[in-house]
Amino acid sequence: MSALRTSRPARIGQYLALLAYLVFLAFPFLWLISTAFKPAPELASLHPTWIPEDPTLGNFRQAFDEQPLLRAAANSLIAAVSAALIAVAVATPLAYVTARHRGRLASAATGWVVISQAFPFVLVIIPLFLILKNLHLVNSVLGLVLVYVVWSLPFALWMLMGYVRAVPAELEEAAAVDGAGRLRTLVSVTAPLLAPGIVATALFAFVTAWNEFFFALVLLKTPEKQTLPVVLTHFLGAEGVADLGPLAAAAFLATLPSLVVFAVLQRRITGGMMAGAVKS
Amino acid sequence: MRRILTAAAALVLLLTGCTAGDEGPDDGVVRLRFQSLAWQKESVDANRQLVDEWNATHPRVQIDYVQGSWDSVHDQLLTSFEGGEAPDLIHDASDDLADFAYGGHLADLRPLLPERLRADIPARSWETTTFGSDKGVYGVPFLQEPRVIIANRKILESSGVRVPTPEKPWSWTEFRQIAQDLTRSMGPGRYAVAWPLKEPVSVSLNLGLSAGGRLFHREADGRVTVRFTEADAVVPGTIHDLVVTDRTAPRTTLGSGGSDTLPGFFAGKYAMVPLGFAYRQQIAQQAPEGFEWTVLPAPAGDAGLTQGVSPQTLSIAEDSPYKKEAAEFLDFFLRPENMVRLARGDWMLPTGTKALADPSLHTAEDGWATGAAVAQRLRPAPAQSVRGYPEWKDKVATPAFQEYYSGAIDAGELRRRLVEDGNRVLARYQRK
After folding, report:
1. pTM for this model (two decimals)
2. What is the least distance, in Å, from the CA of A163 to any CA of chain B?
3. What is the mean pLDDT of residues B212-231?
4. CB atoms B14 and A130 under 8 Å
5. Which of B94, B191, B248, B407 satisfies CB 3.0 to 4.6 Å to B179 for a cystine?
6. Largest alpha-carbon pair distance within chain B?
7. Which residue spans traverse the membrane (chain A) (predicted)?
8. Closest to A140 (Cβ–Cβ): which among B8, B19, B267?
9. Which residues of chain A have pLDDT under 70?
């Protein structure tokens, strides 16, 4: 136990490092919030302040007046939730089989998963576009969801395999000894232990799809179907000029769903992961 | 299990509900997709109003307005063209059209456009959208912006320097001298001029035309080569001297975009900022109360106020089955009175001669008159139709100009890189 004890200066150093990391992570977001509430002259001030001197909701009003943010948010939500659910539904059994039944096929599959992560967007977008066009899935949310599922599946699979491996096979063997069938074991023993991993993976797929820009830009043609990241670019002009206030306001609102989902589920994820980890 | 099945069924229903394709009803109405890059409220409003007016009077040809983004338009169009799903009507800029025109993705507008429109826009503007050996026209240039100097009126007037006009502009030599006078009168920590040179190549080349610079020369065999003459060195040399030798321009803004220099401009740290004409809108919106600004012409050289521009354009996709209808819409959209509305919405200048003559574009307020006065001197940006120019710009010219303006390399090294390294890049694109 004494090996885990750290000296006071080291502890202070750790907290300082943690604080610096938190500031590093939080700075852009806090600046975004500050910008969202500043009127135009304050945005062009040589000495910008953290707290807006003359806070305004005008940027939010302008953002909603000029762009269909609610419709775009609804489109993003449908695409992201669908992609997350489908990705998890496909990846979970696949991860279980690949992790539990190791063989050449499983190794080849996991190898392919790793390799598939190396392909950049630009390499696949035109072939993907042509395939979806032949399937009449260009300019459809279903087409976009399929792309998101395919895009997030390898990493989701990889993530879930780790969670499956962390569940001791002895627990399943014990259930079998107690007379439980394979399905019963999976549902009553493995699934509850995997739940935090499944939630974490779903979160990953959700956030990936929620933030994704390029596929949505290329695949969705009509304004009624555009997602939030695409609509946000409508506040940008040529040569990097931006309508900064409304852009910040809209971007701030766009980050809220991810934050809320994380805030609500984070405790369950860590709680679930730790449950039963040590004997009490 | 039942809950899972219910959720899955709901998901399927939700997605299939969102999956209606983009094929409109078969009611005999022609529907054209018009992707506009207008993004500021005034500009979007002007575009939408014109589309609404057209739709109200043309029930058989309806326009669907789609807003695109300058930030991603090239990649988006490229993919759409390859997939055969491009918008029928395309808003872009002339310096982005070459690849699409050479790739056969844009319709040659010569047989489609009415004589009225062809005659209204000057030949020098049509040049910006003319590509290939057969001189096809792949876009209608309709809005353009010169680079002007936006100045703090109080600082300028209190310093006692001569204020330039389009009739009697500063020369580049005089500009350098005035920058020294202004910096001296402003006190320490302040500068006469801030150059936002995040994109140094277009600024250097476009303003370089004023001194007779061309940089790109078409040889007898049709190939294009880079030559860096004394005329080409005037504008880059002046900017370099302002920053490095005279210290009348700060080094810190060299990597900035135009918007980034505005806080310093409003605070009186910089007396002048060379910017595109459309930046006036941002200045009008963001300037603190009581801040007085004025628009001056860019300095002139041996070629007077000449400078290069890449106008905004409207094109028709080659794949569009309704080119004739699309051209009719362009004819309506770009009528002189409509071009004025579009120009005012975007704070730019129309290319059409009739629109440019509109009195509302010649008022002293917000510097419209200065822009309109230099409109006659705007020429196609050098090299925009040269194949390999984007690579030359990104790999050779941008770093070379950036290093030269910051003082890291001298004029000899700049010349060597632009010419020797540059010609190697261009040669790859011009192999026969």
Report:
1. 0.86
2. 22
3. 91
4. no
5. B248
6. 84
7. 12-33, 77-97, 109-132, 144-164, 185-210, 244-265
8. B19
9. 1-5, 267-280
